[in-house]
Design goal:
The protein is an alpha/beta fold. Helices cover 40% and strands 21% of the residues.
């Protein structure tokens, strides 16, 4: 009787989903930082081009769908789902931040705008 060595168990790679308000600037910024530090992380980044309320609605739906698909044996749920938006002139930003957090979403919020992050990093 031969003994088999157990197969090595690799740690589960974290997978994150990032939905951004803008369609160009925020996705490009996020993809840049992902490329710099992607060790152990898989990221799916999409520029939705929507107001914060719509973005949070979409994030909640993606989180729910991801968990349902995992329960059905159709892949793994995202480790986390992020929504990324600016303050701009949106009237109910604070409400959307709270709503997102209560639903289990992570929030990347910039005030006044993401372009300020460029200045801070570079």
């Amino acid at each position: 009787m031969s003994r088999r060595r157990p197969l090595p168990v690799s740690p589960r790679r974290r997978s994150i989903r990032i939905l951004t308000e803008g369609t160009k600037t925020e996705p490009d910024y996020t993809k840049h930082w992902y490329r710099q530090s992607r060790t152990g992380i898989s990221a799916s980044i999409e520029g939705v081009g929507a107001d914060p309320r719509t973005l949070v609605d979409r994030g909640i739906e993606e989180l729910r769908t991801s968990k349902n698909e995992e329960r059905r044996g159709r892949g793994r749920a995202y480790s986390s789902v992020w929504v990324m938006f600016d303050h701009d002139e949106h009237p109910d930003v604070a409400d959307q931040v709270v709503r997102a957090q209560q639903a289990g979403l992570r929030v990347a919020f910039s005030n006044p705008c993401v372009e300020l992050w460029f200045l801070l990093h570079f």
